[in-house]
């Protein structure tokens, strides 16, 4: 199960945070800092996309200046979540049209709506880009 | 409505380069919002507040506006309202209660968009209250033929969340028939979500959800071997990789199907997947998707474990993966090979790669190094342990800090497990202590001491090794502690060797005294006291140290120094000798090192199907699973028919087939027979006489120690300790006669749901007027009302030669369900809220009974406390009533227990009510407390 999703830039500013486990505000702040320090210092070329984090593990991938990090259970399938990240990024890209960091800042409330169409309760919900995009376009037009 | 104001606001904040400016802008906006929180701007203002919240500012208003947005008819307003509560509130917030009605309304709505928004909100915040009040509505949406695909998949995941958090409030067993068919839905998205839900349900109720196996196999066949797959779900040429992974994982919670056709079909599918991935494409996404499926397939092959051909292919693939240039693939190869190591009988396919695996300890990526360590730990056995431990020790000083502690732990476990010679064990651990220095946890040197104390042959050698360790230029704290302890106990064994005289030993230790941390100094003082006892010739220097530290500033140090000083300065050595008597060996117990490692592994939402740690650890995991599956099957017993349970018992029962007409009660016993590993022995129908209660039984139910049984010949005293689902009893047998008791034996007999294991057997002879201990461990697996018992046998008069008939006693142990309760305190106001929530579904057990003695509050209060419940004062409006709260811990679950006892002074009556989260416990607990109240003496 995904415990949380973090999208952070290279300076460690968190652009998206989605929590599937009830952490307190203090814990959330701490986790954001720890995950950034853990992931940003890793060698992108020669190191894997997985790193142990407390009793769980972080599956992450860097897109331009943004790190997409999923904290998942130790016995979860790493590659399925790694491709889950890519699928999510493709959806963001299709929705915003060549997505960039600022899209996520100015449309943060839309990003949450997109996450809820792709993942729910810490599990992947929909894996067809066509299905998700049709749905998002429909919702976006509603008053 | 335009969100332009929001964009401007965000842009403004982004321009603020320093914190003070941002604060100013925030305050201005907050004032603005406060002043104008009008209806038509509400959505935008709430959105602005959310942005401030995300930036980390405290939001102390706007919650009510957010809640009011939820009841709007406009989709975008409702959406913003729900977003606000999922961001601002957690499942424990009081405000959540305000939205439950809106949620129900939106779940009932004809508008599927509203259904979806409500489902999102529940899936994001759903706590206990939502589980209790809304789970049925969610389930209706999931199974209704009217629901659209979107609603179904969200409802499935929503239920998953509620089930994971509060499985006890969902009638998951009843729902099996309706939920399972969703796996046949034509919509791949719905099946993906349903597969996640059913995976969770099947772990807890494997029997009831067993039909998911043929369904999963059918779906996999469609995905892997047929070509009519909807193109929307093809991800980089791979059909629905996520669904394939989920289905392959689901099958790992079941054994390979017995049905021949089904079995053949799944094997064909596995073959096919392995064949399909011969060529790994260059496109990263395509390759990852294929590998995700392939690794899950290999895990399933290992789990089935019965197909040598497939296993060989899997082993060969893994051998290739661990040599891959791709770091991700190397990582996964090592991880999966550790799974293989826990399943293979013949380690050859893994051992072949030992050099490569050892080399992975030097990989560039710490994640890979960690997997390498796990694999080495799993593949280690008697034949290769020396090589592996040597390599690990060599690598230890270079290992990163993050990894070092775990390495130390694993080296210590392996060394203990596979040591064939004591010397090697001691050498390795001492080396470990000196190399790793402060990364060594306390447990490791404690364990070393335990083992040295327990093995006489080892003590002299250990003393020699620690002494030379103390003389090394660098001696870490833990090595010093071991030195202090071992020399204090066994220094005399080497005192005659050159360079090891008492004075030499003292000097070696004392050279490090001044720089040692406080805790170690304290230990050293104790060692010096032991020295005075062992070697009177060095009394003087030791005494000087005591004298000096009598004035130490630290209280602990000062007190010890004073006490030791006086003990040594007494006229006779009697007290000194008593105090310094040799330490008895520790009772053999499970190493705390292993359990520490396990705790870390088991923190996952879906149960692990395997663990790092080789064959033994995996066998243990399986037996634990069998236990909890059994407990769940029993807990679900009320909902399923006797026949299915009986059939289940029959199918898996060894030995002669049982008749199908067993009733539920007998079945309880039958199930306990299914597990031959349980306990020292299980009460069987062996015609043994009924065990009796000892005279001290009732008293001991509330006290920790006392006399259980006494007659002219023997006395049985009991001392007990409980922690969580575990209990330990020491039974002291005192011989009251002038004769030796011969052929003395005690065996313990567990009962269904209480596992009893002998930890230390009683000696076969007990000398006249002497005492002997006997140790038992208990484990609570579920509700029980009959306690375990012991069977004591012995003969009398071994010395005089006149042998009387042997004595045989069956005595109940003073163990009740209440012993496994831990107090739990809650706010007085919460009590009745929880109380009301537990009023449904037969979770209550109530009785009215008349008291033997007039009501006195104090003894009753003391009694209830002794049951482990936390008593709440001020919770009950009537001050004469008692209310208590506790958590009953079993190996498989934690059961919340609420108790209310209402005395009536005039009628000399009581009304007792017990409500628990698991109905099996309510009545037993109520009976027990009622009994105890009746036993109170005036």
TrEMBL record, chain A:
SUPFAM superfamilies in UniProt: SNARE-like
Keywords: Cell membrane, Coated pit, Endocytosis, Membrane, Protein transport, Transport
Keyword Protein transport in annotation: yes
GO CC terms: AP-2 adaptor complex
Any GO molecular function: clathrin adaptor activity
Gene3D superfamilies: 3.30.450.60
Coiled-coil residue windows: none
UniProt-listed InterPro entries: AP_complex_ssu, AP_mu_sigma_su, APS2, Longin-like_dom_sf
Localization, UniProt: Cell membrane; Membrane, Coated pit
Gene Ontology BP terms: clathrin-dependent endocytosis; intracellular protein transport
Topology of the protein relative to the lipid bilayer: Peripheral membrane protein
Biological function: Component of the adaptor complexes which link clathrin to receptors in coated vesicles. Clathrin-associated protein complexes are believed to interact with the cytoplasmic tails of membrane proteins, leading to their selection and concentration.
Subunit structure as annotated in this protein's UniProt entry: Adaptor protein complex 2 (AP-2) is a heterotetramer composed of two large adaptins (alpha-type subunit APL3 and beta-type subunit APL1), a medium chain (mu-type subunit APM4) and a small adaptin (sigma-type subunit APS2).
Family membership noted in the UniProt record: Belongs to the adaptor complexes small subunit family.
Protein name: AP complex subunit sigma
Species: Tieghemiomyces parasiticus
Lineage: Eukaryota, Fungi, Fungi incertae sedis, Zoopagomycota, Kickxellomycotina
Gene transcribed to yield this protein: APS2_2
TrEMBL record, chain B:
GO CC annotations on file: AP-2 adaptor complex
GO terms, biological process: clathrin-dependent endocytosis; intracellular protein transport
Pfam families: Adaptin_N, Alpha_adaptin_C, Alpha_adaptinC2
Source lineage: Eukaryota, Fungi, Fungi incertae sedis, Zoopagomycota, Kickxellomycotina
Originating organism: Tieghemiomyces parasiticus
Segments traversing the membrane: none
Main location: membrane
UniProt keyword terms in alphabetical order: Coated pit, Endocytosis, Membrane, Protein transport, Transport
Residues noted as binding a 1,2-diacyl-sn-glycero-3-phospho-(1D-myo-inositol-3,4,5-trisphosphate) in the record, renumbered to the chain: 4-5, 40, 44-48
Protein's UniProt name: AP-2 complex subunit alpha
Topology versus the membrane: Peripheral membrane protein
Domain Clathrin adaptor alpha/beta/gamma-adaptin appendage Ig-like subdomain, first and last residues per copy: 698-814
Keyword Phosphoprotein: no
Subcellular location: Membrane, Coated pit
Annotated family: Belongs to the adaptor complexes large subunit family.
GO molecular function, one term: clathrin adaptor activity
């Amino acid at each position: 199960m995904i415990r949380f999703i973090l999208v952070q830039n290279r300076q460690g500013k968190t652009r998206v945070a989605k929590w599937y486990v009830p952490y307190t505000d203090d814990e959330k702040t701490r986790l954001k800092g720890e995950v950034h320090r853990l992931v940003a210092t890793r060698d992108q070329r020669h190191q894997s996309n997985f790193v142990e984090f407390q009793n769980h593990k972080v599956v992450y991938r860097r897109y331009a200046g943004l790190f997409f990090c999923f904290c998942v259970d130790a016995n979860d399938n790493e590659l399925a979540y790694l491709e889950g990240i890519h699928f999510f990024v493709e959806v963001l890209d299709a929705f915003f049209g060549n997505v960039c960091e600022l899209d996520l800042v100015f449309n943060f409330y839309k990003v949450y709506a997109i996450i809820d169409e792709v993942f729910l309760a810490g599990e992947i919900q929909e894996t067809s880009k066509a299905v998700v995009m049709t749905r998002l376009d429909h919702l976006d037009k509603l008053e | 409505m335009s969100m332009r104001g929001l964009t401007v606001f965000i842009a403004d904040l982004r321009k603020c380069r320093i914190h003070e400016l941002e604060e100013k802008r925030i305050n201005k906006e907050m004032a603005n919002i406060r002043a104008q929180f009008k209806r038509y701007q509400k959505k935008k203002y709430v959105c602005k507040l959310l942005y401030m919240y995300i930036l980390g500012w405290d939001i102390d208003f706007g919650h009510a506006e957010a809640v009011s947005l939820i009841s709007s008819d406009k989709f975008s307003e409702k959406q913003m309202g729900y977003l606000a509560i999922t961001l601002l509130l957690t499942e424990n917030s009081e405000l959540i209660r305000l939205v439950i009605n809106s949620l129900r309304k939106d779940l009932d709505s004809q508008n599927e968009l509203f259904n979806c928004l409500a489902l999102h909100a529940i899936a994001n915040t759903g706590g206990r209250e939502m589980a209790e009040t809304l789970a049925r509505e969610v389930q209706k949406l999931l199974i209704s033929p009217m629901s659209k695909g979107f609603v179904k998949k969200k409802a499935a995941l929503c239920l998953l969340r509620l089930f994971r958090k509060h499985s006890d409030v969902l009638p998951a067993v009843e729902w099996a028939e309706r939920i399972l068919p969703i796996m046949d839905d034509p919509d791949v998205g719905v099946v993906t979500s349903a597969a996640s839900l059913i995976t969770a349900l099947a772990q807890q109720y494997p029997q009831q959800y067993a039909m998911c196996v043929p369904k999963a196999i059918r779906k996999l066949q469609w995905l892997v071997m047929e070509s009519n797959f909807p193109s929307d779900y093809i991800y980089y040429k791979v059909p629905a990789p996520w669904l394939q992974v989920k289905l392959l994982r689901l099958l790992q919670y079941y054994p390979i199907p017995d049905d021949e056709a089904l079995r053949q079909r799944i094997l064909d599918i596995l073959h096919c997947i392995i064949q399909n991935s011969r060529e790994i494409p260059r496109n990263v996404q395509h390759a990852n998707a294929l590998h995700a499926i392939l690794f899950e397939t290999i895990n399933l092959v290992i789990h089935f474990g019965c197909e040598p051909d497939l296993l060989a292919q899997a082993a060969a693939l893994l051998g290739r993966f661990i040599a891959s240039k791709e770091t991700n693939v190397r990582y996964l190869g090592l991880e999966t090979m550790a799974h293989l190591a826990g399943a293979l009988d013949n380690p050859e396919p893994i051992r072949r790669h030992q050099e490569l695996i050892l080399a992975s300890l030097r990989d560039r990526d710490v994640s890979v190094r960690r997997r390498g360590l796990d694999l080495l730990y799993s593949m280690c056995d008697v034949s290769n342990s020396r090589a592996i431990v040597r390599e690990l020790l060599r690598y230890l000083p270079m290992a990163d800090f993050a990894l070092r502690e775990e390495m130390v732990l694993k080296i210590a476990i392996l060394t203990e497990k596979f040591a064939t010679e004591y010397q090697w064990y001691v050498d390795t651990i001492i080396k470990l202590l000196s190399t790793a220095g402060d990364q060594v946890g306390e447990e490791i040197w404690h364990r070393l001491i335990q083992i040295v104390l327990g093995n006489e042959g080892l003590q002299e050698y250990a003393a020699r090794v620690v002494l030379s360790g103390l003389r090394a230029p660098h001696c870490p704290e833990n090595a010093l502690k071991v030195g202090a302890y071992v020399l204090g106990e066994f220094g005399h064994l080497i005192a005659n060797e050159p360079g090891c005289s008492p004075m030499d030993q003292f000097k070696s230790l004392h050279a490090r005294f001044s720089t040692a941390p406080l805790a170690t100094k304290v230990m050293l003082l104790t060692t010096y006291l032991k020295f005075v006892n062992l070697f009177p010739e060095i009394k003087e220097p030791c005494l000087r140290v005591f004298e000096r530290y009598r004035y130490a500033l630290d209280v602990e140090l000062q007190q010890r120094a004073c006490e030791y000083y006086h003990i040594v300065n007494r006229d006779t050595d009697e007290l000194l000798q008593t105090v310094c008597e040799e330490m008895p060996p520790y009772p053999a117990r499970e190493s705390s090192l292993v359990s520490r490692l396990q705790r870390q592994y088991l923190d996952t939402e879906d149960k692990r199907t395997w663990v790092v740690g080789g064959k033994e650890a995996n066998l243990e995991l399986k037996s634990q699973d069998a236990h909890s599956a059994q407990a769940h099957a029993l807990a679900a017993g009320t909902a399923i028919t006797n026949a299915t349970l009986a059939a289940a018992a029959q199918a898996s029962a060894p030995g002669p087939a049982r008749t199908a007409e067993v009733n539920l009660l007998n079945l309880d016993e039958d199930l306990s027979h299914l597990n031959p590993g349980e306990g020292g022995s299980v009460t069987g129908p062996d015609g043994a006489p009924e065990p009796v209660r000892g005279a001290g039984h009732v008293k001991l139910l509330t006290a920790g120690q006392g006399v259980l049984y006494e007659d002219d010949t023997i006395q049985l005293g009991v001392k007990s300790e409980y922690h969580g689902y575990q209990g330990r009893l020491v039974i002291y047998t005192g011989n009251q006669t002038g004769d030796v008791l011969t052929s003395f034996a005690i065996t313990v007999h567990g009962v269904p749901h209480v596992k009893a294991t002998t930890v230390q057997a009683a000696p076969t002879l007990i000398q006249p007027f002497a005492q002997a201990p006997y140790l038992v461990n208990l484990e609570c697996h579920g509700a029980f009302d009959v306690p375990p018992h012991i069977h004591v046998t012995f003969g009398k008069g071994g010395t005089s030669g006149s042998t009387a008939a042997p004595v045989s006693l069956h005595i109940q142990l003073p163990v009740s369900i209440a012993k496994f309760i831990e107090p739990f305190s809650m706010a007085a106001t919460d009590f009745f809220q929880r109380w009301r929530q537990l009023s449904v579904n037969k979770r209550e057990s109530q009785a009215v009974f008349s008291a033997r003695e007039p009501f006195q509050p104090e003894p009753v209060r003391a009694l209830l406390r002794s049951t482990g419940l936390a008593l709440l004062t001020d919770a009950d409006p009537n001050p004469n009533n008692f209310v208590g709260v506790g958590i009953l811990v079993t190996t498989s679950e934690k059961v919340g227990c609420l108790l209310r006892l209402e005395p009536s002074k005039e009628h000399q009556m009581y009304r007792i009510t017990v409500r628990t989260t698991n109905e099996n416990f309510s009545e037993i607990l109520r009976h027990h407390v009622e009994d105890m109240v009746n036993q109170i003496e005036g």
